[in-house]
Please model this.
Amino acid sequence: MNPFTTYQFRKMPVRIVRKSDKNYFVIRDICNILGWSNPNRELAKHTENVPLYERIQTPGGLQVVRLVPRADVEKLLAANSGHKALLLERYLRNEVFPKLDAEEKAAAQVRALIVGFISTMHTLMTEQYFADKYHGERNDRRK
Model:
């Protein structure tokens, strides 16, 4: 199970699951807000989404949900000219997307620091290995 964050749009949940360093939306939440009863049909109509499912813990217990990337949520909203879609798009653009972008940027910086640290440690350990190896050989030759 991956961690998820819940945002509230007009007292309705918008759950976002973090999986493999990417954010995915629970499509059922988006479709409920837009008044669509069949998320799979809407996805098939407006996107080329490959099904991705995840188990998340909810107040009612463990639940399997279908996840979609941000790009597919944007395609669904663009295909719907209704008032709810406009309000949801505005909410996501002003409230949710900036937070997700900031989290992704911070995660990328942490990854870059870790990679840099590992690379530096590898270089230092390699240098130390060869210094010890060749320093020991020079001492053996002197004897």
The two ends are 62 Å apart (CA to CA).
